[in-house]
Design goal:
By secondary structure, the protein is mainly β. The protein has a single domain, classed as 2-Layer Sandwich (NE0471 N-terminal domain-like). Helix content is 10%, strand content 36%. The chain is built from two helices and nine strands. A six-stranded antiparallel beta sheet has the order 7-3-2-1-8-9. Strand 5 and strand 6 form a beta hairpin. The chain is globular.
Length: 97
């Protein structure tokens, strides 16, 4: 069974801070996809920064989305206890985690 994405925050270097339903925080690097088809639109930071939660995964304003299983399997676990800001699908607001 895959883990749903419950929060997302765009980071520098075309990376995303993802929080999954198991409360695990992981970093997903979007840069390997940026030279492929419609993903090239994400090179524009204003477009990249439109990332948001959609159902159990993420999507951008240009209708691109990624499978939550891919996001989980291809991301790297965040180490440490630093607090991060993220977008909560529950409240629709940026919050401290």
């Amino acid at each position: 069974m895959y883990q749903s994405v419950i929060a997302v925050k765009p980071l520098e270097g075309y990376k995303l801070l993802l929080t999954f339903e198991n409360k695990e925080k992981r970093i997903f690097d979007v840069s390997p996809y940026l030279n492929t088809g419609k993903f090239s639109e994400l090179k524009e930071l204003p477009v990249f920064n439109t990332v948001r939660i959609n159902f159990d995964s993420i999507e951008w304003s240009n209708q691109l989305d990624l499978d939550p299983e891919l996001l989980y399997n291809e991301s790297k676990k965040v180490r440490g206890t630093a607090h991060h800001q993220s977008f909560s699908r529950a409240t629709g607001k940026t919050c401290r985690r």
